[in-house]
Design goal:
Structural class of chain A: alpha/beta
Number of domains of chain A: 1
Oligomer: heterodimer
Number of helices of chain B: 3
Shape of chain B: globular
Bound molecules: iron/sulfur cluster
Strand content of chain B: 25-35%
Strand order of the largest sheet of chain A: 3-2-4-5
Shape of chain A: globular
Strand order of the largest sheet of chain B: 2-1-4-5
Order of helices and strands of chain A: EEHEHHEHEH
Structural class of chain B: alpha+beta
Largest interface: A-B, 26 and 25 residues
Largest sheet of chain A: 4 strands, parallel
Distance between the termini of chain A: 35 Å
Low-confidence stretches of chain A: 1-11
Order of helices and strands of chain B: EHEHEEEH
CATH class of chain B: Alpha Beta
Distance between the termini of chain B: 11 Å
């Protein structure tokens, strides 16, 4: 019989026996800081920290997506600013956040532009890793 | 009712199958139980984490093993 823990890394499904299941939600807002959360979430996913998942699906109360989110052991939430759209969306859905970062609290000023740097993305990813450690 | 247990055969999948059988008995509901263990088949359900449980094709649980009491609730709700 197949052992779940030998499921290939590239498999689209993670067995929860293989370790923690982690989901990443970003506000992905229409500003530099919102887009920073989106870029950082992509990088964290690509780095194997967790799966970047759709905050809009939670806001829209999409049944299958809610079930998936409820199955996560840990949830990382990234907000661009203290309006806290990701945090509030998750709270309304009763999904507990275990790691939370607000980009403007990290010293990035919010603006309605999309000029974000690799350094800012790397800095946000490092902050998440630091909080998870 | 058709219940599918999605998982590649790990201890948690087995526990979910056991709890589901117990919950069916407690709920007094009869159902066909199918184990889905092929990763490609599991992926069709769009679950992120296993073990998972689907009732009549709809995923009700993913990434955890609810206790029998919670499964009774889920089964009764699905049975209507
Ligand atoms: S948290 Fe701030 S940046 Fe993100 S979507 Fe809300 S208002 Fe926009």
């Amino acid at each position: 019989m197949a052992d779940c823990c030998s499921t290939p890394k590239a498999a689209p499904v993670d067995c929860c026996c293989g370790g923690e299941s982690v989901l990443i939600f970003a506000c992905s807002g229409g500003s530099n800081v919102g887009q920073l959360t989106n870029e950082a979430a992509k990088k964290l996913d690509q780095g194997g920290v967790g799966k970047f998942y759709c905050l809009a699906g939670i806001g829209g109360d999409i049944a299958g997506m809610m079930v998936n989110a409820e199955g996560a052991d840990r949830i990382i939430a990234l907000d661009g600013c203290d309006v806290a759209c990701a945090r509030k969306t998750l709270e309304r859905a009763n999904l507990p956040i275990s790691c939370y970062v607000v980009v403007t609290d990290e010293g990035v000023e919010k603006g309605h532009h999309f000029a974000i740097s690799d350094e800012e993305v790397a800095g946000l990813c490092a902050r998440v890793q630091e909080l998870l450690a | 009712m058709k219940i599918q247990i999605l998982g590649t055969g790990c201890p948690k999948c087995k526990k979910l199958a056991e709890n589901t059988a117990a919950a069916l008995q407690e709920a007094g509901v009869s159902a066909e139980i199918e184990k889905v263990s092929e990763v490609a088949e599991i992926a069709k359900f769009k679950v992120l984490f296993t073990p998972a449980l689907a009732i009549d094709g709809e995923v009700k649980v993913a990434g955890k093993v609810p206790d029998v009491k919670k499964l009774v609730e889920i089964i009764k709700a699905a049975a209507g």
